[in-house]
Amino acid sequence: xxxxxxxxxxxxxxxxxxxxxxxxxxxxxxxxxxxxxxxxxxxxxxxxxxxxxxxxxxxxxxxxxxxxxxxxxxxxxxxxxxxxxxxxxxxxxxxxxxxxxxxxxxxxxxxxxxxxxxxxxxxxxxxxxxxxxxxxxxxxxxxxxxxxxxxxxxxxxxxxxxxxxxxxxxxxxxxxxxxxxxxxxxxxxxxxxxxxxxxxxxxxxxxxxxxxxxxxxxxxxxxxxxxxxxxxxxxxxxxxxxxxxxxxxxxxxxxxxxxxxxxxxxxxxxxxxxxxxxxxxxxxxxxxxxxxxxxxxxxxxxxxxxxxxxxxxxxxxxxxxxxxxxx
Length: 327
Fold this sequence. Notes:
With about 325 residues, the protein is an alpha+beta fold. The chain has 2 domains: about 1-175 and about 320-325, 2-Layer Sandwich (Ribosomal Protein S5, domain 2), CATH 3.30.230.10; about 175-310, Alpha-Beta Plaits, CATH 3.30.70. It has helices spanning about 20-25, 70-80, 105-120, 125-140, 145-155, 175-185, 200-210, 215-235, 240-255, 265-275, 300-305, and strands at about 1-15, 30-45, 50-55, 60, 85-95, 155-160, 170, 185-190, 275-280, 290-295, 310, 325. α4 (about 125-140) runs antiparallel to α5 (about 145-155) and α8 (about 215-235) packs antiparallel against α9 (about 240-255).
């Protein structure tokens, strides 16, 4: 049995500039941090003459073409798994999908890593991420970006530059040990209770970017600039400035779509900022998922968010990207 895992991620700056509809014209830049919450994939060769696929539902089919799960079907084709392989594939996750932590990209990279391990292939994180992007963006035509796949494949706290020709450069954020620990200690994550498909939220941004909508393009230009300023602040150890930029980012991000936030999320954000948060934002495409805050008064903030009925998910950074846990 092969078991792989991919970390989920939080975005520290530049989210949205990783969509092809933007970076193919203007280039993109973002910073993402992998966290110690994972998507797991198991691949096991079975005795039965069929494929057994277990996720939120169960599929038992004879051929790859019959598999209904689109990512699993395309991943098997991409890696070149023979239809006579007869595999049992199971997925599990620490956090459910639709919550803004990049679970789809983590799922795809973990699945590809497991299938390559089954075929005894070695694969570099950049190639793994590109294969995952090709499946989701090109083969399945989902209006998503490249952040989740690359953040999962590389792990760590990483800067990604997305070039107009499709190439991606990746390098670790240059943090001192003290700054890294302080950043990890002071970031607090709360689940809003709302789940949604990222593609539903991103479709509006994608359509407007392709149509060269001036307001959307200017919004994403500003977000990219904020990401660079956030990088400079964090590398200088100026975490309060980073928190201030998070707040500016969130206020700007809400302008992209009327579906980006709602009355409850706005109220919770305002309450957090009045109770110890120095900055924050909704993680992911928007519309639900997790609120991330930077706070030097974490006990006060946690108490305030508990009063609102929000659940905290405690985490630490994950230095390792998509990996084989056991074979």
